[in-house]
UniProtKB/TrEMBL annotation, chain A:
This is CRISPR type III A-associated protein Csm2. It comes from Caldicellulosiruptor morganii.
UniProtKB/TrEMBL annotation, chain B:
Coiled coil: none annotated. This is CRISPR-associated endoribonuclease Cas6. It comes from Caldicellulosiruptor morganii. InterPro entries: Cas_Cas6_C, CRISPR-assoc_prot_Cas6, CRISPR-assoc_prot_Cas6_N_sf. CDD domains: Cas6_I-like (cd21140). Keywords: Antiviral defense.
Length: 170, 261
């Protein structure tokens, strides 16, 4: 199940400062704050995209510029996420469809995806990946789906797919 | 994209399994449960408009295959696994419903009193490589085309006068609504022409809460058609119809079409 997102900067800042003052620093609280900060970046990107699509004239140009600024910042975070997602799928049913454990080599389908990605064939890559996920009955996380969003350039799309594949097979 | 989900009925000692005659409604509730459990935010966006039901066209169609089915009064008897065909042009919808349907928390799921199911397997169905300007289709579930007369909706069948005109209005509205969801405000590229090949009138018993609330009757009768027909138009429009279904109540299990080979 996907969790909903709530971000209150003042509340987070206050609780972190209080923890420092009381000498009760807990790493997981800091980690949570950083994760929420990253999530906020993605939420801002979505809102800016919506606003830019609905704006007119000069506002539209300015909003798109802001959108690209935050989007670029988010790409590197997304790369990390899809790589970690790939790593988390090791030893899953999906992994077995991509990697021959007896021969210790990636299967043909993995090379096919890499080649289609190199050629920038976004739709084909999505279809082949989706087919493998469906056959393996493996959950397909939204982070990976985001890599196929046409708002990202072909170069960014390639980087995201390579990140996922390197996490899965690396 | 188009997928099949195959469900096995659990703990049934009987050779024949049973579902209510309005089994499409049962599956509609099942899909809504899968979607809302997985992503309640997306579910609300699709089905609700603040505290009112969202009547916006849904970007998907489904059809249920019950093998060796027989109708008996208010029940439908069948033997074997249940196949749910699902088709959409919307990636976001597909990923959400797919993740919902494969979630282990959803099963065992009680479709009806004597019908508890578990997902057996799922796979993607290959779509045509190319859509032409004229294609032959067959129905997997009845197609409902209706016209408005005052407050009532009257079914219109292919041999009736003005059918093609009404069909075009219905498709144009449907396609425009679905394209708006992905930021394109565009209806049909070109008028669709309809040529019946082997079709028959179909009357279906259906159940929805709104009808029950408004009329006090539990079951509603819907008139549509099923069989084989030819559509001519812009290939992109035909692809959209193929992926999201044809006619009314597509998200309630009607209007699923397949390319006839």
């Amino acid at each position: 199940m996907r969790e909903s997102f709530n971000f209150n900067f003042d509340e987070i800042k206050e609780s972190l400062e209080k923890a420092i003052k009381e000498n009760q620093i807990k790493i997981d609280v800091f980690e949570k704050a950083i994760n929420n900060y990253k999530k906020l970046g993605f939420e801002l990107e979505k809102i800016l995209e919506f606003a830019a699509k609905n704006a007119k004239d000069e506002d539209k140009v300015k909003l798109w510029a802001l959108f690209y600024e935050i989007s670029l910042q988010n790409i590197s975070e997304l790369c990390d996420r899809v790589k970690r997602y790939g790593e988390s799928l090791k030893n899953s049913e999906l992994y077995k469809r991509f990697y021959d454990e007896d021969k210790k080599v990636p299967r043909g389908i993995a090379f096919r995806i890499l080649e289609l990605t190199r050629l920038g064939k976004r739709e084909e890559v999505f279809y082949v990946l989706l087919r493998e996920f469906v056959n393996a009955q493996q959950e397909l996380k939204h982070d990976l789906v985001n890599a196929f969003n046409p708002k990202y350039s072909i170069e960014n799309f390639k980087i995201l797919v390579y990140s996922f594949m390197s996490g899965l097979l690396g | 994209m188009r997928a099949k989900f195959i469900f096995e009925v659990q703990n049934s000692q009987e050779e024949y399994r049973e579902l209510p005659v309005y089994y499409r409604t049962v599956f509609m509730a099942f899909l809504k449960k899968a979607l809302s459990d997985y992503n309640s935010e997306y579910f609300r966006k699709l089905y609700w408009w603040e505290d009112k039901k969202n009547k916006w066209q849904k970007p998907f169609v489904y059809a249920v295959n019950l093998p060796n089915m027989n109708f008996l009064d208010d029940k439908v008897l069948f033997r074997g696994d249940i196949v749910l065909n699902l088709s959409t042009s919307d990636y976001e919808f597909f990923v959400n419903i797919y993740n919902g349907l494969i979630s282990k928390n959803l099963y065992p799921y009680k479709l009806a009193d004597h019908c508890v199911v578990k997902l057996k397997r799922s796979y993607l169905v290959k779509e045509p490589d190319q859509f032409d300007s004229t294609m032959t289709f067959k129905t997997f579930s009845p197609v409902l085309i209706e016209k408005k007369e005052g407050d009532d909706k009257i079914p219109v069948l292919p041999y009736e006068e003005g059918f093609e005109e009404i069909l075009n209005d219905v498709i144009d509205f449907e396609i425009r609504n679905i394209r708006i969801l992905r930021g394109q405000n565009r209806g049909l590229h070109k008028r669709i022409s309809f040529k019946p090949k082997n079709i028959k009138k179909t009357v279906v018993k259906h159940k929805i809460s709104e009808f029950e609330k408004n009329t006090g009757k539990e079951i509603m009768y819907l008139t549509g058609f099923s069989g084989i027909f030819e559509l001519s138009g812009h290939p992109e429009d035909l692809k959209e119809i193929y992926q999201n279904g044809l006619g009314f109540r597509r998200a309630q299990g009607f209007g699923f079409i397949e390319v006839a080979r």
